[in-house]
Automatic annotation (TrEMBL):
GO terms for biological process: tRNA processing. Transmembrane segments: none annotated. Its EC number is 2.5.1.25. The lineage of its organism: Eukaryota, Metazoa, Chordata, Craniata, Vertebrata. It catalyses: a uridine in tRNA + S-adenosyl-L-methionine = a 3-[(3S)-3-amino-3-carboxypropyl]uridine in tRNA + S-methyl-5'-thioadenosine + H(+). It comes from the Eukaryota. One of its GO terms (molecular function) is tRNA-uridine aminocarboxypropyltransferase activity. InterPro entries: DTW, DTWD2/TAPT. Keywords: S-adenosyl-L-methionine, Transferase, tRNA processing. Belongs to the TDD superfamily. DTWD2 family. This is tRNA-uridine aminocarboxypropyltransferase. Residues 1-190 form the DTW domain.
Length: 228
């Protein structure tokens, strides 16, 4: 079935009957470790979109010789890469000026995995770097996020596509199966996971504090509400 899940927790009724019609093409750069995760969100994203609008490439290193199509995409002036940082422009500002169909690259992995892929592949620093405004909290409540505004890959894609396509209903449609996934898991024993930021600020973090000074500093920044 499209969702590839057992019938008892099948998500197909929550997927759109027909793939969403979008002009933006997504390239999902997926860290190999994500393939083994049971509750990954990219398959749900792919099930919501036409195959030619959601292309998934798995790996850590991407060079021009092995990935000529990706290299061409990265050199295209209309291509965007969703990766927050000092060099990133808010996607809303870019979308206002964009009238032609675009290509967006999204890296799928933990924050450290995404950072490794971004900085060790020169191709990914060619497209215009964009980010989402931290205006919504993650609804992927069955996994722990670093901060309240960190989103899953599915959520990032849903928000980004709704902005690029200027259609808010796209976000609601793509998030529908995620809500169902979380509901099913909670019904079968999963617990709601608050972000690390929430746990630290409320004195609920029950794991040993890291000995690594860099990691400890990052946790101090989370507690003090300093943007990392």
């Amino acid at each position: 079935s499209p969702c590839s899940r057992p019938q008892k927790v099948c998500l197909c009724p929550f997927l759109p009957v027909h793939p969403l019609k979008v002009s933006t093409c997504l390239y999902i750069i997926q860290h190999p470790a994500e393939e083994s995760r049971v509750l990954r969100t990219v398959p749900l994203l792919a099930a919501c979109l036409p195959p030619d609008k959601c292309k998934i490439l798995v790996g850590r290193r991407f060079n021009e010789d092995r990935y000529p199509e990706l290299a061409t995409v990265c050199r295209n002036p209309s291509t965007l890469i969703l990766y927050p940082g000092a060099e990133a422009t808010n996607l809303e500002d870019v979308a206002v000026m964009s009238s032609s169909p675009s290509v967006m690259i999204i890296i799928d992995g933990t924050w450290s995995q995404a950072k490794d892929i971004f900085y060790k592949n020169s191709l990914f620093r060619l497209p215009k770097q964009v980010q989402l405004k931290p205006s919504i909290s993650s609804q992927y409540v069955i996994r722990t996020q670093p901060t309240n505004t960190c989103l899953s890959t599915l959520e990032c894609a849903a928000v980004a596509l709704s902005i690029m396509e200027k259609n808010k209903s796209i976000q609601e449609t793509i998030l529908h199966p995620l809500h169902a996934l979380c509901s099913f898991q909670l019904q079968h024993g999963a617990q709601i996971h608050h972000s690390k930021e929430h746990l630290l600020k409320n004195g609920l973090y029950d794991k040993p504090m890291p000995k690594n000074k860099r990691k400890l500093r990052r946790m101090e920044l989370l507690v003090n509400n300093v943007k990392i």
